């Protein structure tokens, strides 16, 4: 296991991600809020005015994001998912927002979101219909791209329902070109590989050239089994997908569901830590108007976000499975390393893991400086290859650490060196 893992590490570290879509966007994993997992296709504004898909929902989200630390933490995009449009295009063949739920229209909503210093995302589909049955963009790519540009939209999530799979690539590439042709920089979030995997192995070089991020696997649910299935899929395809991630284009394991109903706090920490390790877009789907303070603090944790947004832009990967622990590692800028130790045993109490057993611990030679970020922030100080350090990991929780190699010992003479080795 460890030997295979370090071979992969070598390949990943040495390969440079191929050319990304050249629109100047997503140089770091996208951060924002996306309505789907929490609000789905709730269009009943008579019965549920506070939670239905309407301009009011996004305006309130923009308010909260600007006021309560989300924007400062880096969450920038307020994103609409399915169920926003009218069932009919207008007389010119353009998409239009449902007039009852979006009386001001999308342009006015974009202006509002921009006035809060945030950006607006919208949703459409490469095929005949969206997944929820609203008009799809097939045959209308240029019209729809221009409509979104005219509305000053900043991001497009482009779904893959109701599409002949043999035309998927063409459709996604055509929309990418149509967005470029508008002259407006619009971040392009694809689901191309997700819809192609059932038929053939997707061409990630082509996907990276066309998209800023791309969904590979099933929709996230508000449950630990869903998070586990995403991690498992990612680890078992990491040799294919990890090399394609880098500034400008990212693998998208779907939304963060932290702050909802289905995950324990330890499991929320695991999702946050592993999404940072995976260099995943951090698109939260929850209700920040009403969120538990601990979940909010976790989502706004600047140490974890710094790992997510690390300028080296390398995606991490699973390097070992040992004794019901999973080890995930992500190379960071300045030769640093992030390590996540995930306790997969869902019974008992916290278990200790000996950190010297992490394959990447070799960067600690001759010395390193270790900071624990989860489950609580702790400076562990200078360590050696012979460390005795053990981290405690809650069931289905994660210990997250960063390791900074100290290449040049900061002492010169042997007396001080001896003093240090005794430490
Ligand atoms: C369109 O593509 C060209 C060539 O890749 C690029 O230089 C330009 O910045 C792109 N424009 C937009 C708006 O994405
Ligand atoms: C993509 O664009 C090409 C060139 O205009 C066109 O021939 C093709 O039919 C388009 N494919 C789809 C799925 O729209
Ligand atoms: C994958 O896409 C790239 C870029 O579009 C292309 O050059 C390459 O030939 C494709 N590979 C395969 C196996 O089709
Ligand atoms: C180790 O890291 C901590 C936290 O970043 C820092 O305060 C400390 O100065 C570092 N120690 C060394 C020896 O680099």
From TrEMBL:
Primary localization class, coarse: other
PROSITE patterns referenced in this protein's UniProt entry, alphabetically: ALPHA_GALACTOSIDASE
Leader sequence segment: 1-20
InterPro entries per record: Aldolase_TIM, GH, Glyco_hydro_27, Glyco_hydro_27/36_CS, Glyco_hydro_b, Melibiase/NAGA_C
Localization annotation: Lysosome
EC number: 3.2.1.-
GO cellular component, one term: membrane
Gene Ontology terms, MF aspect: alpha-galactosidase activity
Reactions catalysed, as given in the entry: a globoside Gb3Cer + H2O = a beta-D-galactosyl-(1->4)-beta-D-glucosyl-(1<->1)-ceramide + D-galactose; a globoside Gb3Cer (d18:1(4E)) + H2O = a beta-D-Gal-(1->4)-beta-D-Glc-(1<->1)-Cer(d18:1(4E)) + D-galactose; Hydrolysis of terminal, non-reducing alpha-D-galactose residues in alpha-D-galactosides, including galactose oligosaccharides, galactomannans and galactolipids
Swiss-Prot/TrEMBL keywords: Disulfide bond, Glycoprotein, Glycosidase, Hydrolase, Lipid metabolism, Lysosome, Signal
Domain Alpha galactosidase A C-terminal: 313-397
GO biological process: glycoside catabolic process; glycosphingolipid catabolic process; oligosaccharide metabolic process
PANTHER family, alphabetized: ALPHA-GALACTOSIDASE A, ALPHA-GALACTOSIDASE/ALPHA-N-ACETYLGALACTOSAMINIDASE
Family to which the UniProt record says this protein belongs: Belongs to the glycosyl hydrolase 27 family.
Function in brief: Catalyzes the hydrolysis of glycosphingolipids and participates in their degradation in the lysosome.
The protein's assembly and partners: Homodimer.
Name this polypeptide is given: Alpha-galactosidase
Source organism of the structure: Liparis tanakae (Tanaka's snailfish)
Gene designation per UniProt: GLA
